[in-house]
Amino acid sequence: xxxxxxxxxxxxxxxxxxxxxxxxxxxxxxxxxxxxxxxxxxxxxxxxxxxxxxxxxxxxxxxxxxxxxxxxxxxxxxxxxxxxxxxxxxxxxxxxxxxxxxxxxxxxxxxxxxxxxxxxxxxxxxxxxxxxxxxxxxxxxxxxxxxxxxxxxxxxxxxxxxxxxxxxxxxxxxxxxxxxxxxxxxxxxxxxxxxxxxxxxxxxxxxxxxxxxxxxxxxxxxxxxxxxxxxxxxxxxxxxxxxxxxxxxxxxxxxxxxxxxxxxxxxxxxxxxxxxxxxxxxxxxxxxxxxxxxxxxxxxxxxxxxxxxxxxxxxxxxxxxxxxxxxxxxxxxxxxxxxxxxxxxxxxxxxxxxxxxxxxxxxxxxxxxxxxxxxxxxxxxxxxxxxxxxxxxxxxxxxxxxxxxxxxxxxxxxxxxxxxxxxxxxxxxxxxxxxxxxxxxxxxxxxxxxxxxxxxxxxxxxxxxxxxxxx
Length: 471
Fold this sequence. Notes:
Elements: H1 2-23, H2 27-39, H3 41-51, H4 59-62, H5 69-80, H6 96-102, E1 107-116, H7 118-131, E2 135-140, H8 147-161, E3 165-171, H9 180-187, E4 192-196, E5 211-212, E6 216-219, E7 223-227, E8 245-246, E9 248-253, H10 257-272, E10 291-298, H11 306-317, E11 321-325, E12 329-330, H12 333-344, E13 348-354, H13 360-375, E14 379-383, E15 387-388, E16 392-395, E17 399-403, E18 407-408, H14 409-414, E19 415-423, H15 425-440, E20 442-444, H16 447-451, H17 455-465
Main location: membrane
GO molecular function: cardiolipin synthase activity
Organism: Leucothrix arctica
């Protein structure tokens, strides 16, 4: 009997290795899974069921389920904002690829406000919640029941008391510590609250490695907030156990908000199979300065590796500079090669990462490939003032991006992410000033520094890099 079980497990490991060979997207991940499934099937089979999946099953098909009018309403967004489609100047024709990935075009008549660090960000968000008249869509990867979390809850309860509808989504893994009492306070007042659970049906039961990493707030279809902040005291410098927290958010007003609302509603449909009655008519902000922008969601249900392609294309179109700030920097081979090529053709390529990251594996993995990109002329800088958590990049003097996607395999292939791309010279100048201040609080990594590391450290880094596909 034991011999039969052992043989069955070995055969199952072999079958799953073939499946991994056909399904895994990267060569590094393919080799790792095939070897593990064949050599150590008892360990490899459960690990692959949880960590090895590369596509999020059911999410796309779920949007065709439920009421017949749901998909038509979502598809009508493009028609509703068609009057605000922004013409593409000849020099910006390369932005077309972003529109294809986003499935929506750049729109004009928008206003984008840069929000630097947590206190400024949440003050602005809470002001928006206080002004809400119809509904609030709110989505975070992490919500903590601390002083900031309680303040958010109280603002939402006050909105509910005014008759404002509240729709709250949180990631079940990112917010695993969130107490039911916190949620009950909102649901008792009438809020609709759901977790983005990765195992809604049996076929999704083992999809535990996927995360909904998006942070999106939409109010009345008029304003939206997107960026790196979650809900926790560390984001507003009030957690004594956490270092100074450096992060970036933006407030969007105008037709571009429809893209953020569209992203939220697709997630809501997946979870609830229901479509709330929302405002889908774009609202133009009262301002003299309008900006072109588009919302680009990405995730493991996409037909393409959207986040990775977005990053690669951004690097390829850069002519003078590409500055990138990311707390987690373990890019795939395609992005690494694009960075090398950009530096070799004379582009000012700067990568800003934390000096002290909160993920040891990612920290070690970076040292496995840093020498190669440093030799090409890429500048790697470590932020020393505290923990850098912003996800921002700047191309030349016109294109900026603020969102939730990191420069690692998890954001490229496993997480649901969202990025706002802003094609505007004035906003780019604001991002430039912000990043220059960050560079002033950073120090450069040199090849000599890496070469001076002991052999055991180099071996450890190489070993850590092997786990990059599931980090």
